[in-house]
Amino acid sequence: MAKAAMLLMAVGVLLICCNIGGASAFKTHNVTFFVHDSILVPNATVTIVAGPGGDLTKLHKGAILVTDTFITKTADPNSAPLGKFEGQYILDGGIKYRIEAIIIIDLPGDLVETTYEVLGQRTSFNSTNDRALAVVAGTGFFEGQTGYAIVHTVAQKLFGTNGAQINTQEWTLVVGK
């Protein structure tokens, strides 16, 4: 009886190991692009739409921002556009903010929008350290893909004391299904 139990346990462990081995069949690929956000400057791509007491003039706790900008192939804002970066930022005191973004990749000849949805929390806009965010869904050509995004600030220019700035960020999505 003990030998049968040991054999059954060994088969169970083998099945678990095979299942774990099968999970490594998850195929990923990288999608890299650059986002050029500008806040509280002329022709800004990020707009404060709500703020405590109705104050829409500076970045501070409780502000809600909406972004709508192009993504490009390189860090040069005049490089080839790949699509759009749209979403919202919610500030929780200037130390961190939450981001919900839709990345629309405009593929040549693709009549259906191909998108990734990204969610997460980041340190402040003024941070230059790498951040990781969740890629929770893909649609169109990327349907069913999930993964994570690594965001790295490659250039930043600050203006005044109200939070006005221009940022260039490199985004690398590691996604698959």
TrEMBL record:
Residues 1-25 form the signal peptide. It is found in: Secreted, Extracellular space, Apoplast. Its main location: secreted. Keywords: Apoplast, Secreted, Signal. It comes from the Eukaryota. PANTHER family: NUCLEOPORIN-RELATED. Homodimer. Belongs to the plant dirigent protein family. Dirigent proteins impart stereoselectivity on the phenoxy radical-coupling reaction, yielding optically active lignans from two molecules of coniferyl alcohol in the biosynthesis of lignans, flavonolignans, and alkaloids and thus plays a central role in plant secondary metabolism. This is Dirigent protein. The lineage of its organism: Eukaryota, Viridiplantae, Streptophyta, Embryophyta, Bryophyta.
